[in-house]
């Protein structure tokens, strides 16, 4: 059945961080909050941090990416990929006392494992998170 997952989501979680072209698994943390939500978070190539959350919502996938740089006013370029294809992209400015931004999209829940990638860049800094849902 399309959109049906037979493997517990906690077993298919993956998170990576891209820093200077080297993939590091040591700074990423992933967790399954329940069978319908998976979160991953980690450090970017400099001081910022990222978080990626995926959960089901009315038969679709709600994907939320967040960047926290602790600096308001930064203009970041971001993109969301779903199984290798760009699903959304744009620009966002950090704001508030936390100097953060987040983007949220509803995507189609494809059959099998959905691989979500959230990537954001600012002046050479790279943030990249991956969740297999």
Give me a quick take on this structure.
The chain is mainly β. The chain has strands at 17-19, 22-24, 29-34, 37-43, 49-57, 60-68, 75-82, 85-93, 100-108, 115-122, 125-132.
In oligomeric terms, what are we looking at? single chain
What is the CATH fold-level name?
A: Immunoglobulin-like
How many H/I helices? 0
Largest sheet: 5 strands, antiparallel
Termini gap: 16 Å
**Percent helix range:** under 10%
How many structural domains in the coordinates? 1
Whole-number mean pLDDT:
82
Succession of helices and strands: EEEEEEEEEEE
Q: What's the CATH class label?
A: Mainly Beta
Rg, rounded, reads 14 Å
Strand order of the largest sheet: 3-4-5-6-9
* Spans where pLDDT lies below 50 across 5 or more residues: 1-27
DSSP, total strands: 11
CATH architecture: Sandwich
Overview of the molecule:
The protein has 133 residues and is mostly beta strands. It has a single domain, classed as Sandwich (Immunoglobulin-like). It is built from no helices and eleven strands. A five-stranded antiparallel sheet has the order 3-4-5-6-9, with no helix packed on it. A four-stranded antiparallel sheet has the order 8-7-10-11, with no helix packed on it. A two-stranded antiparallel ribbon has the order 1-2. A hairpin with a 2-residue loop joins β10 (115-122) and β11. It is elongated and about 40 Å long. The two termini are 16 Å apart. The relative contact order is 0.25. Mean pLDDT is 82; it is low at 1-27.
């Amino acid at each position: 059945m399309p959109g049906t997952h037979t493997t517990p989501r906690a077993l298919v979680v993956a998170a990576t961080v891209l820093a200077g072209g080297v993939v590091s698994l040591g700074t990423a943390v992933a967790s399954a909050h329940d069978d319908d939500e998976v979160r991953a978070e980690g450090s970017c190539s400099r001081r910022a941090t990222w978080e990626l959350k995926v959960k089901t919502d009315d038969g679709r996938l709600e994907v939320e990416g967040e960047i926290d740089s602790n600096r308001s006013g930064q203009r970041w370029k971001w993109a969301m990929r779903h199984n290798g294809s760009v699903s959304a992209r744009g620009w966002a400015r950090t704001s508030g006392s936390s100097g953060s931004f987040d983007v949220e999209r509803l995507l189609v829940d494809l059959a099998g494992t959905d691989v979500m990638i959230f990537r954001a860049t600012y002046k050479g800094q790279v943030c990249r998170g991956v969740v297999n849902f």
